[in-house]
Design a protein that fits this description.
The complex is a heterodimer. By secondary structure, chain A is mainly β. Chain A has helices spanning about 5-15, 25; strands spanning about 50-55, 65-70, 75-80, 95-100, 110, 115-120, 125-130, 135, 145-150, 155-160. Chain B is α/β, with parallel strands linked by helices. In chain B, helix 17 packs antiparallel against helix 18. The chains are: A mainly beta, B alpha/beta.
Chain lengths: ~180, ~800
């Protein structure tokens, strides 16, 4: 877990000590080293870094892997859902990745395996990992930013783009 | 497929971007926002000196940052005829919302009219009249002259009773003090129109007559009281979804215990604990879930009563609390009258109440204890909050009175941590001459259905979506208005005299001529003969007050689309056209009644109306309100001192109420079962309760949201929440399209599996364009013509397997969870 992730989780604990649990957000597996984003050139669309997040063999169903993308300050989660979903990558079409900053107020989302959702302790928003991060209920005015994935023939999983604006930045790729 | 904007960066507001005060145009809470605008060819930079926030935007910002806005908070609009960037983001300094934006309000920018981004392309941009078989553009003068000519002829032949009006009476978008005053002056002063209804009900009446009759105005506390209460007693309000930031910013801190310091500081002479909450609602809502997550289940009492039985519960609570000696005797003696009579008249045993409500005796005892059992010898502070579950529920008048009885008996009005308040729907913004009609007010929908009236003026209302008995209403209304359309098609449009004669001929045969003033082409607008384009909040300066009577000015930050105008200035034009029409008819005395509309701006209407006629209005001007920013002033204003407007934090803090002798009046409110005509028979005949209400994402009748991809991507059709066993019995799957039907009519919905729904008790989204629940709501009303939307029973059958638009939808539980 990146330093930024730890700080976010701490903030969540401080503000939401009562009645909520961040165990799922905190209890995560291997951390993956962040890759540097590239400097954005003045193109019509942003140029995203193509960062390796993990290998398919690192993933187990419903065991979230903390990642960052497009840079170390943008926490996310890599998930193997166990069932093919629209936009899912990998041999089973079931690997997805999302930003874990709630697009409402930037609080850290926690994965709940029981119904494969990401949940926000701040204001109770919920996002469906099997439906492209659709907001099941909540205060965010956008569905959850999903990291677009590619899996190569070695099973390495790369993030290559993001489909919504990530909370807390006016450009998904920050200047280097 | 889940909707994504694929926006990966947004323009940065430069340091010199203009900033405007904005109060959210949607719900009663009225969150504070700021609009930033700057020239379309300019942009700021990421360095702190180069942007409006003074922040280093090359870095990731922290949670709850003030230095970020979502794509939904951005657009490109016209200002003074030029394209400008627009950002509307929540204000962290506003005491109402402290920077929170709801899923509705935080889309205000995206739901603005833009010729550049194409948002809200549905907006009306010019007056339209019916000619050559369609609605086609014309000038303001031409459209108003036609409306005035027909209105004058109808009034001359039928009197003012031939003029039927549907009009907003609230604040926020489609309302505000400027516009309620203008319409009120036209219909109640220049004319004497009795046949008028309000946007969501078929008559011109208060939704809370009872509490007013008792001397207790319905918005009597401040939002801070929710932070100070020992107990919140919430009735028929799903506050997390419908008064979102009031709930998140003022209720939750109490339930979490984070307002304890404030309690100790403001109320030092008593013990304090984190707040508890009693929620009276037949349905388990996300509000119940959030309260349990924050306060713990032990501090949340959800009373899931049988639908429509609130009154029996309240009467039993009053009786039990009196038996226990927990009433506030000093307060009752000093500030009320009629307590003993009320107690005797309403006496209800715990056992009887348990039988009627479906609760246990113990649950009612616990509620009573949480409301009123003294804490260390001191009075317990309880805030009573209610909304549409009560207002649109069984026996509105008595139930409202019974709840006010409970609040008064326990001394909880006018005091910190108390209040007996409606939660509200829209903001308020009412200032009008007195309504010339009687009480009960005229049941206007029935008047229209029975063929009465010759001309119908509609101001920002859509009866097709937001009325009861809607299917019959539509059927008759279409027939009557088609008669006029057909008559109009028989004469050349340019021959005004022949045209008016043709219209009047059709009206004599039972036809109805309709002028519809709105910002978008509504469903009832399909029947209109003239449509007039109005401006909305932000396209005009607009004042409203919120649920704690907080008055603010939303400044004009953009141009209205095309030729659209503020409603108050449309009224001015119509009044002047009517003056001319009456003068042309040789009736100078009548024509003179339409003088006094020489307003050039909305500020002129504000000064004519609010400043001269509202309580405390003499202190209030636009300039003073502008200086008070997004925190404004709580009405009534009492002074202007040291450059600040001085307001009123709580009503009745002196123990004097709104009656002749200043004493609040207890009310006799006996239980009488399902009160509205036909409801008990409907319940006996049909198996499913069709409870109905709001969803978080949708504002009002979705008049803007219907063109918002984010909202329509979630709710392409209105949902109906059903217990999985009921679904199995009807062989229904998630997303299946069903017909809901009874003897009143039929409508459609999409099935949302809901394990927490009680068997045979469904809940359907209200007032949705793709399936109005009003079609199946009976015409039964209470003695004051208040509709009873909530107690509706019907049958359900499958129409089709889940339609294509539902394929990508999530049907998971909407309740937040941690495991």
């Amino acid at each position: 877990m990146s330093k930024k992730c730890d700080r976010l989780v701490d903030l969540g604990r401080r503000q939401f000590l009562r009645g909520t649990s961040l165990a799922a957000a905190a209890g995560v597996a291997t951390a993956v080293a962040p890759r540097q984003s590239q400097a954005a050139e003045p193109l019509a669309r942003l140029t995203y870094p193509k960062n390796k997040l993990a290998n398919v063999k690192d993933l187990k169903v419903d065991e979230p892997l903390d990642v960052t993308y497009p840079d170390a300050d943008s926490p996310g989660v890599l998930l193997k859902l166990g069932k093919a979903v629209e936009g899912g990558a990998g041999p089973d079409g079931d690997i997805v990745a999302f930003s874990t900053l709630c697009p409402h107020k930037g609080f850290p989302l926690a994965y709940v395996a029981a119904d494969k959702s990401l949940n926000c302790p701040g204001h109770y928003s919920r996002f469906d990992c099997e439906r492209g991060g659709q907001e099941i209920w909540g205060q965010a005015t956008q569905n959850l930013a999903q990291f677009k994935l590619r899996v190569d023939d070695k099973g390495d999983i790369y993030a290559e783009a993001v489909d919504e604006l990530i909370y807390g930045r006016l450009s998904n790729v920050l200047p280097a | 497929m889940t909707f994504k904007r694929n926006v990966d960066r947004l323009p940065i507001p430069p340091k010199d971007a203009k900033r405007f005060n904005v109060t959210c145009q949607f719900c009663i809470v009225g969150c504070g926002y700021h609009a930033y605008t700057w020239d379309v060819n300019d942009q700021g930079g990421t360095a702190p000196g180069n942007n409006a926030f003074g922040a280093d935007l090359s870095k990731q910002q922290d949670p709850e940052t003030v230095n970020w806005f979502a794509p939904s908070m951005y657009n490109v609009v016209k200002q003074g005829g030029k394209d400008v960037h627009l950002v509307i983001k929540p204000d962290h300094e506003c005491v109402v919302n402290s920077g929170l934006g709801s899923v509705r309000g935080a889309r205000m920018a995206e739901e603005s009219f833009s010729e550049v981004t194409g948002s809200q392309a549905q907006r009306l941009t010019e007056p339209l009249v019916w000619r050559y078989g369609g609605l086609y553009p014309t000038s303001w003068d031409d459209a108003l002259a036609l409306v005035a000519a027909v209105t004058q002829r109808v009034a001359a032949e039928q009197g003012d009773d031939g003029v039927i009006v549907s009009a907003f009476d609230h604040g926020g978008a489609g309302g505000g003090y400027e516009n309620t005053w203008a319409t009120g002056k036209l219909y109640f002063q220049s004319m004497k129109v009795k046949n008028i209804r309000i946007h969501n009900r078929p008559a011109y009446n208060s939704e809370v007559h009872a509490t007013r009759d008792m001397g207790v105005g319905e918005l009597n506390n401040c939002y801070e009281d929710a932070e100070l209460a020992d107990t919140i007693f919430a009735v028929g309000t799903n506050a997390l979804e419908t008064q979102t930031n009031y709930f998140l910013n003022h209720w939750i801190p109490n339930l979490r215990g984070t307002s304890l310091d404030k309690k100790k500081q403001q109320l030092p002479d008593e013990t304090h604990a984190a707040g508890r909450i009693v929620i009276v609602d037949p349905r388990r809502t996300v509000t119940v879930n959030a309260c349990e997550m924050e306060a713990g289940k032990d501090n949340v009492l959800h009373l899931a009563i049988n639908s429509g039985t609130d009154l029996a519960l309240f009467n039993a609570l009053v009786a039990y609390i009196a038996d226990k000696g927990w009433v506030d005797k000093d307060f009752i003696a000093a500030s009320t009258s009629g307590f003993d009579d009320m107690l005797a008249a309403n006496k209800t045993s715990l056992e009887d109440a348990a039988k009627i409500t479906g609760l246990t005796v113990e649950q009612i005892q616990t509620a009573a204890s949480w409301i009123a059992e003294p804490k260390d010898g001191k009075r317990r502070r309880t805030m009573f909050a209610y909304e549409k579950g009560l207002i649109w529920g069984n026996d509105n008048y008595r139930t409202n009175g019974a709840l006010a009885n409970l609040a008064l008996a326990t001394g909880n009005v006018g005091r910190p941590g108390g209040g007996c308040v409606r939660m509200g729907g829209h903001q308020e913004g009412y200032v009008r001459p007195d309504y010339p009609g009687g009480r009960p007010a005229v049941y206007v929908d029935q008047l229209l259905i029975s063929g009465k009236g010759g001309v119908h003026h509609i101001w920002a209302c859509d009866n097709y979506k937001t009325t009861l008995n809607a299917l019959e209403f539509k059927r008759v209304y279409k027939k009557r208005t088609d008669m006029v359309k057909d008559a109009m098609s028989n004469v050349p449009y340019g021959d005004r005299a022949a045209m008016v004669d043709a219209i009047m001929g059709a009206i004599k045969q039972g036809g109805l001529f309709v002028v519809d003033v709105d910002i978008v082409p509504t469903q009832i607008g399909q029947a209109a003969h003239v449509m007039l384009p109005a401006a909305t909040a932000g396209e005009m300066n607009l004042t409203s007050m919120n649920g704690e009577r907080r008055l603010r000015l939303t400044e004009r930050y953009m141009d209205p689309p095309g030729q659209a105008k503020p409603d108050c200035l449309i009224v001015a034009g119509l009044a002047q056209a009517l003056e001319k029409a009456w003068r042309d008819a040789g009736k100078n005395d009548v024509a003179d009644q339409f003088k006094g509309y020489d307003w050039k701006t909305e500020e002129d209407a504000f000064m004519d109306g609010y400043h001269q006629h509202a309580g405390g209005g003499e202190f209030v001007t636009y300039e003073r309100l502008r200086a008070m920013g997004t925190n404004g002033v709580q009405e009534p204003a009492t002074d202007f001192k040291d450059g600040q407007l001085v307001g009123t934090k709580r009503l009745y803090a002196d123990g004097k109420f709104g009656t002749k002798d200043g004493k609040a009046i207890f009310m006799s409110t006996q239980w009488r079962g399902l009160q509205a005509e036909g409801k008990q028979q409907e319940k006996d005949k049909f198996p499913y309760l069709i409870n109905n209400g709001r969803a978080n994402q949708v504002w009002q009748s979705a008049y803007l949201d219907q063109q918002n991809d984010f909202v329509m991507g979630r709710w392409p059709l209105p949902f109906i929440e059903m217990n999985p066993d009921d679904m199995a019995a009807l062989s229904l799957g998630a997303g299946d399209l069903v017909e809901v039907f009874n003897d009143n009519g039929s409508t459609q919905a999409m099935v949302y599996p809901t394990p927490t729904a009680k068997p045979k008790e469904t809940f359907m989204l209200f007032a949705y364009p793709t399936g109005p629940v009003g079609n199946v709501v009976s015409k039964g009303v209470n003695e004051l013509i208040i509709p009873n939307y909530k107690q509706t029973w019907g049958n359900i059958r499958k129409i089709a397997d889940a339609p294509e638009v539902t394929k990508g939808l999530s049907f998971k539980s909407q309740e937040y969870r941690t495991s």
